[in-house]
Amino acid sequence: MPSAITLIRSASLSDIAEYAYAATAPAESRLIFLAGACPLNEDGSTAAIGNYAGQAAKAIENMRAALTASGASLQDVISTRVLVASTRREDLVAAWQVVRDSFGDHDVPSTLMGVTVLGYDGQLVEIEAVAAVLDS
Which of 40, 97, 118, 133 could be 123's S-S partner, Cβ–Cβ 3.0 to 4.6 Å? Predict the structure, then answer.
C-alpha cells in the first residue's frame, strides 16, 4: 500500500535533529489521532518502574497495538510528541533513543518534552502520535 506521508527536510535548517522537520498527508488520507501511549501492562499496572527506556519501549508496544487496531503501523505515523517526567536531559535522551530506534528510517517530526508528572503511578513516559493512511 502506498504511504500517505511525505517527510519534509529543509537545507536551511540544522541537520543535527534526528527527525524530519515537517510532514504532509494528502487530502484523501484518513487521519488517526492516538491517545498518549502509556507504559501500562494489560492488567493496568505500570511497566518498567524507574526505567525510562523500558517505559518508552512499552509505550511503543502499546502504540503499535492501537495503530494496528486502527488499520495502521508505525510507518503511517506523521508526528509524535514524547513526554518524559524528568528535568534531566539524560532521562529524556534515554526515552527518545528508544522511540527514535523504533521508527528507524521513518524519522517523523517529533517533539521531546520534560514534564512535571504524568497520569499513572510510577509513569515516566507517554507518547502521543498522529497517523495518516490511504484506505483502498
Answer: 118
**Tens digits of per-residue pLDDT, 74-101?**
999 999 999 999 999 999 999 999 999 9
31, β-bridge pairs: 132
**Which residues lie closer than 8 Å to 61 by C-beta, 6 or more apart?**
none
Q: Number of C-alpha atoms within 13 angstroms, CB side, residue 90?
A: 1
Per-residue cell: 87: 528535568
**What's the CA gap between 47 and 110, in Å, rounded?**
23
DSSP string, 69-101: HTT--GGGEEEEEEEEE-S-HHHHHHHHHHHHH
For 33, 59, 74, 81, 83, the CA distances from 92, given in Å and listed in that order, are 23, 14, 21, 12, 8
**In this structure, are residues 71 and 94 in contact, taking their beta carbons and an 8 Å threshold?**
no
